[in-house]
Amino acid sequence: MRTTRLEAFSDGVLAIIITIMVLELKVPDGHRLPDLIHTSGVGLLTYLLSFVYVGIYWNNHHHMFHLVRRVTGGVLWVNLALLFCLSLFPFTTAWMDDSRFARTPVVLYGLNLLIAAIAYFGLQTVIIRQQGPESPLRQAVGKDVKGKVSPVLYLAGILGALAIDRSGHAGVSIALACFVCVAIMWIIPDRRIDRVVRQHETPD
Predict the structure, then answer these.
(1) Which of 146, 154, 75, 159 is nearest to 116 (CA)?
(2) Are 103 and 163 in contact (CB under 8 A)?
(3) pTM > 0.70
(4) What domain range includes position 88?
(5) N or C, fewer C-beta in 10 Å, the chain?
(6) Among 191, 201, 162, CA closest to 170
(7) What is the predicted pLDDT for the residue at 188?
(8) What are phi and psi of 37, to 5 degrees?
(9) Given CA atoms 99, 103, 104, 109 in this order, what sign does their dihedral have?
(10) Residue 203 predicted with pLDDT over 60
């Protein structure tokens, strides 16, 4: 089957995820900037981080399916697994916000990021197996350095939050720094898929 319905469904789910996250933001009690910072400051930061992550997944998902002509049932199920992982973002983001970056919510947020990365890698792997080792996506992915480094940083953040300075905030700060670093790493444009898309582009 063609990819049209899968892409449309995925786009809709990601749009809903972003909408739910923004609805979790609290309206300030007052009308001054300090009121905004006091009431919504942390929420805006966590929303921004999660929004960037959802945007990254949408961007990469969009580019990846430019190199896919048809999908199998396996691809559909792994794509649903990815969407399930991403649909947990509003919950883990809200808990991290409400707890003011307590250790357990931050660890759960890191686990959410990790399983989403694993699900995306699984989707990519299933598509490559379907298309074969010489597929355009296999050529575009290459060594996939970012894809390999990201889970390592997620794990480092999770373990840092669990093991370092349990009574304080050093471990949590290290975890958040790891999560932000991965986001920054993926925001930087990766031209590999764009280049392969242009080589294989055909008119609709």
Answers:
(1) 154
(2) no
(3) yes
(4) 4-200
(5) C
(6) 162
(7) 76
(8) -65, -45
(9) positive
(10) no
